[in-house]
Amino acid sequence: MVSAINRDDAWSQIFEEYPILNAVDSIGYYDIKADDIKLYKEPRLMCKVDFREGTPSIMKSHGLSILAINNGLYRIARNSPFLDIEENISAKVKEVSPPDLITLDHENPSSESAALDIAYATGILDDVFGEESRLTIRGRKRCDLDFNIGSTHYPVRGVQVEVDGGYEGGSGIYLIEAKIGSASNINIRQLLYPHRFWENFSKTRKSVSSYIFFYQEGVYRFMPFEANGDVYSIDQRSQKLYRLRGTLPSVDIKAIKPRRGDVNESAPFPQADKLDKVIDVVIKIAGVESTSKEDISLMFDIVPRQIDYYCNAALWLGLINYNGQSQSYQATDLGMTIARQSYANQVAEIAKIALTNEVFNFVLHNPKLAVPASIRNQSGLSSESTYGRRLMTVKSWLSHFERVLSKV
């Protein structure tokens, strides 16, 4: 098995070797075995496409997607199995009291299951479902189901499905796909496969409802998944949002003074506008011993090129290190500490680091003035085009600092 080749190159070689495009053009799909994929790279990595941005480049250029239809068999077809999601939180957020439980770290749930446990313990889930429920489903099962996306039929047999949390109440079964952080889209597989499986199991005994849940920026966000025949959607108008009551960190960002040595000046100046994604990357890296850029790219709705930007931002903040020999990232001690904090505290600590940089500090205090060349040059921003792109990140982060810490 070839392991050193990157994922995009492996798929390009597969498309050269197998008549995939001819089959898609003639009968609408091509079924490929995991054993064939394994000749080039591990099938688990090759076929994991949780978000649109993770679609292999050659498939993206031909408008193709890949979904599992059997244990060890995948169907490639010309359609889009992704559901779009508005990332920004615009609905009203309901505040609830944190659980009075010392074994649950409600300050910063480090995993999807931990976030769900907190939502369950606080009564958030019962409010979402509209009835009291009990945790009855968690883990993997194998399913049989049939569905269509456009004109393509998917006869799924023996495929492994997993839910992050399944709950049963008096009248319904409730399934949740959970994510730490936000996303602009999600692969239908993560919602439809378990939804249809448990519908088939329940038959008419109890209704089955599915939700996509994001723990983002300290908010518990639940949106219903709708599957009406072969029409699938995320009902964002019916979303429910919750936040645990707590104390915001006491920090006056305008009192932070510029100084050298806090940021990693050997790393590129940040070009990653979404600070929440930077935090999400750090949390993911902190949760494992080490991870590669390719693995990180499969965790987020970020194109591979942008993974460099977000990892470089975390490097600049001193929250992760890069091991050139193993080509992997590890969290620093500071990164591990921040990853375990509440979201507001994470933002506060990053603000304390970033604002020691003279460019960030100058723009905070002088938002309408151009940054002097002498200050820009100290941060490697002598080029006008480079400066312009990085300035967008600076302004985005400052806006994020002020929004999250505004009640301080």
Beta-strand percentage range = 25-35%
Query: What is the overall number of helices?
Result: 16
What distance separates the N and C termini? 55 Å
Task: Characterize the biggest β-sheet.
Answer: 8 strands, mixed
Number of strands: 15
Helix content: 25-40%
Indicate how many domains the architecture comprises.
3
Q: Which value, in Å, is the CA radius of gyration?
A: 23 Å
Structural class: alpha+beta
Nearest-integer average pLDDT: 92
Low-confidence parts, pLDDT < 50 over ≥5 residues? none
Broad shape: globular
Pick out its properties.
alpha+beta; 8-stranded mixed β-sheet; 3 domains; single chain; 3-stranded antiparallel β-sheet; 408 residues; Arc Repressor Mutant, subunit A; 16 helices; 15 strands
Could you walk me through the main structural features you see in this protein, from its secondary elements to its overall organization?
By secondary structure, the protein is of the alpha+beta class. The protein has 3 domains: 74 residues, no CATH class; 152 residues, no CATH class; 152 residues, Arc Repressor Mutant, subunit A. The protein has 16 helices and 15 strands. The strands form 4 sheets. Strands 5, 6, 7, 8, 10, 11, 12 and 13 form an 8-stranded mixed β-sheet that branches. A 3-stranded antiparallel β-sheet has the order 1-3-2. It has a two-stranded antiparallel sheet with strand order 4-9. A hairpin with a 2-residue loop joins strand 7 and strand 8. The mean pLDDT is 92.
